[in-house]
Amino acid sequence: MSLLSFFKKIPKTGYLVALIALLTRIGYFMTLPFLAVYLTQQGLFTPGQIGIVIGVSGLVFSISGLFNGNYIDRRSPRNILIISFILSGFCYFAFALSIKLFYALLCINAALGWLRSLADISSVTIIVANTNKENLSYAYSARFIAVNLGLVFGPLIGATMANQQSLMIFYIAGIIHFMVGIALIFFGKQSLDKKIPPNPANWLNNFYVLYQDKILMNITLINFLMWLAYSQLDSTIPQYITHHIANPAILVSKVLIINAIICVFFQPAVSRWAELNSLKMSGVIGSSLFSAAFILVALWPAPVAFLIAAGLLSFGELFTLPINSLLIMRIAPNHLVASYNGLANFGLLGMSIGPIIGGYGLQFIGSKYLFLLIACLPIVVLWRYLTSVPD
């Protein structure tokens, strides 16, 4: 499928949600990946403390997902988007004002994780509720591409200001979120309002339905292990680069931009290949690439190796994470779309545990053994794909 025909199949709602994702991810990726670099350069906290600060967002994001999903199934996703973006703007401002206060940063990033969970689940719910089944993969792919475009433009701004040790990036990110939230008050009502009746069941009944879905539970476990490994890309690897490589912000930005460019240009082709062939084989290929990337940086921790590993991780991401999300969107009942995605987000607990393991791993066992340990996780994922995911 050509890119032109791919974009023609994306519905209006897909484009609108993608635009929202692009703007907010620019704000996110211009700040949080460089927070570790800034705190390390300033010598404000230990590597373990930095890992905790970075990881707490993912912890709250994942734990709150199930409860947020259950709540969103009963409310207007558009209204929740508006509130979450405006409150996120305040969080980014608070980062700049509290940069030297460990516990303040901890609380702010925790709040940001909760708000990101509300926004992400609401966005996916809007896509499913306003898109035909045959166009669902195209709408989801548009949002995925937009997220990665944000990963291209965000680090470009972040790298420039991080080199100047500037906190202005947090104010800019806050303004972006304010503007998106305010714009949604006046625009997008017809395209973003949910067209499915609210779910009348109570929370316990919903949880029982989710627990009984074995595919959902297996994908959640796979997501947990993959996100634990993937989280090293914007937490542990930047710390290692900062301590051992000249011009660390430049190399970190290159790593993230390589990741984003590959995801943007190859996502439609990989997604289409997986749909036409085998989701299981797609997961096997992706987990193998993840493992190879960490073995490479463990045995050859040079700038070139980090760039090659970024490419391997990027293709590994395309073969696993979007496919898992698309599978969950397709198996979810219409009245439980947000709840299904909320439980799937529980796998993002790996995003919080990963930076903590990475930070203390650098501190106590060294980069070589840490990255070899991380390389073992995708091997476990490969086994789960082979034994638990249907063809």
Short précis:
With 391 residues, the protein is an all-alpha fold.
Describe the protein in words.
- The protein has a single domain (3-388), classed as MFS general substrate transporter like domains (Growth Hormone, Chain: A), CATH 1.20.1250.
- The chain is 82% helix and 0% strand.
- The chain contains 18 helices and no strands.
- The chain has helices at residues 3-8, 12-29, 32-42, 47-72, 77-97, 102-129, 136-163, 168-186, 189-192, 203-212, 214-230, 236-244, 248-276, 279-299, 303-331, 337-344, 349-364, 367-388.
- The two termini are 22 Å apart.
Topology:
Layout (H helix, E strand, L loop, with lengths): L2 H6 L3 H18 L2 H11 L4 H26 L4 H21 L4 H28 L6 H28 L4 H19 L2 H4 L10 H10 L1 H17 L5 H9 L3 H29 L2 H21 L3 H29 L5 H8 L4 H16 L2 H22 L3
Helix pairs in contact: 2-7, 2-8, 3-4, 3-7, 3-12, 4-6, 4-16, 4-17, 5-6, 5-8, 6-16, 7-13, 7-15, 11-15, 11-17, 11-18, 12-13, 13-15, 14-15, 14-18
Portion of residues in beta strands equals under 5%
What is the CATH architecture assignment? Up-down Bundle
Biggest sheet, open or closed, and with what strands and sense?
A: none
CATH topology: Growth Hormone, Chain: A
Mean pLDDT across the residues is: 80
Helix content: over 70%
Number of domains: 1
Please provide the ordered H/E string of secondary-structure elements.
HHHHHHHHHHHHHHHHHH
Secondary structure class reads mainly alpha
Low-confidence stretches: none
The total beta strand count reads 0
Number of H- or I-type helical stretches: 18
Backbone shape = globular
CATH superfamily: MFS general substrate transporter like domains
Please state the oligomeric state of the protein chains shown: single chain
What's the CATH class, please? Answer: Mainly Alpha
Terminal Cα separation, in Å?
22 Å
Question: How many whole angstroms does the radius of gyration measure?
Answer: 20 Å
